Amino acid sequence: MQVRNPFCAAMLFVLTLLAVACGPSTDSEPALRLALNWFPEAEHGGYYAAQVHGDYQQRGLDLEILGGGPDAPVVKRVATGEVEFGLTNADGVITARAAGIPIVAVFAPYQINPRCIVVHEGSGIRQISDIANLTLALSQRPAFSHFLRQRYEFPGVSIVPYHGSVAPFVNDPAYAVQGYIFSEPVVAQRLGATPRALLVSETGFNPYASVLITTEKRLQEQPETVAAVVAAAQRGWIRYLEQPQQTNEHIHTLNPDMDVEILGVGAELSRNLVITGDSIQKEQIGTMTLHRWQVLVDQMVEAKIIDAGQVSPGSCFATDYLPDSPRTGG
User: Fold this and answer.
1) Domain shared by 133 and 270, yes or no
2) DSSP codes of every residue in 70-130
3) Is 100 left (phi over 0), alpha (psi -120 to 50) or beta?
4) pLDDT higher than threshold 50 for residue 91
5) What b-and-e string marks burial along 220-229, b requiring 16 or more CB atoms within 10 Å of the CB?
6) Lowest-confidence pick of 238-242, 263-267, 271-275, 317-321
7) Tens of pLDDT along 299-329?
8) How confident is the model at residue 19 (pLDDT cuts 50, 70, 90)?
9) CA distance 97 to 316
10) DSSP letters for 246-285
């Protein structure tokens, strides 16, 4: 199967980035903007909880959250200064930096990536390597799809674009679809299907998810603002995992397709993806390690998404903006 070069779209605007510079602050500083990578859902719960409970305001921030959708150009919006912050997965940061786009991850709530492939229970498929003889809906841009197609043969599989709807899956027993474990499979079950969710992380490809990104320039020029946003986000995620109801009601008003019951399932499933046993506790939500970034870079080289030596793992992230770091002072 032919894999589309993941850098084509990014490289189209690299020259634009060279000409774009953040202008000086005006007397009336505009609200900060955070661009989501998808429609408002449970994966964004902590960021919305910080808004609902006033955690941004308590830190002197006026932050607006902007919804996304399939293949939302979050990295481009952050890199060009259209928005100050955005959400993507860790592989998106690596892809961007390989294309010369200087974005940095500063907060990563999901230690276990919620990405999954949804198949029908009756298909007999029990793991991703078993997928064969069906139609598989995958977005073309994300690294996970390139990794899977590089790793597995997928005999008899027709890969089609994913447009954000589970309706084709529900109506076709020989159809599989990408998803997040607390979204597509839950919605499909609500619509009468009997789905089985296969976590991509079980293949070993496990990028941090819903990662908060900004630019190197903003880190240099506005470190206190970045630290305040990160601290508010961490507090919001603690709130969301403990008491998600009010936040879920707010998310439902923004995305009526996600009712409060589905969002409640998402919040419950998120607990074991954000807080992982003894390794990550509530006070450490958002942390990242060099080892995880190195593994991911190596996997993306293996999948021919980037070239060896093209990206330094240490340049992809910064943890000194977390609340327990010396920079933020607790």
Assistant:
1) no
2) TT--HHHHHHTTSSSEEEE-HHHHHHHHHTT--EEEEEB-BSS--EEEEEEGGG---SGGG
3) left
4) yes
5) eebeebbbbb
6) 271-275
7) 999 999 999 999 999 999 999 999 976 544 3
8) very low
9) 8
10) HHHHHHHHH-TTS-HHHHHHHHHHHHHHHS-TTT--GGGT
Q: How confident is the model at residue 142 (pLDDT cuts 50, 70, 90)?
A: confident
DSSP state of 211: E
Given phi > 0 = left and psi -120 to 50 = alpha, else beta, which region is 59? alpha
- Is 316 within 8 Å of 94 (Cβ atoms)? yes
* pTM more than 0.70: yes
> Locate tokens 């990242």: which residue?
288
- For residue 130, is it left (φ>0), alpha (ψ between -120 and 50) or beta? alpha
Of 217, 269, 254, 228, the closest CA to residue 107 belongs to 228
Tokens of 209: 């998810």
In the structure encoding, which two tokens stand for residue 284, read together? Answer: 């450490």
Same domain for 97 and 233, yes or no, is yes
Helical axes 290-302 vs 143-151, angle rounded to 10°: 60
User: Looking at the 3D structure of the chain, how many domains does it have?
Assistant: 2
* 165's tokens: 């709807």
CATH of the domain at 181: 3.40.190.10
Q: Could you tell me if 234 and 303 lie in one domain?
A: yes
* Mean predicted confidence (pLDDT) in 179-188: 92
Q: Which residues contact 266 (CB under 8 A, 6 or more apart)?
A: 41, 42, 43, 45, 182, 183, 186, 258
| Share of residues in the chain with pLDDT > 70 (%) | 88
Q: Which amino acid is at 63?
A: L
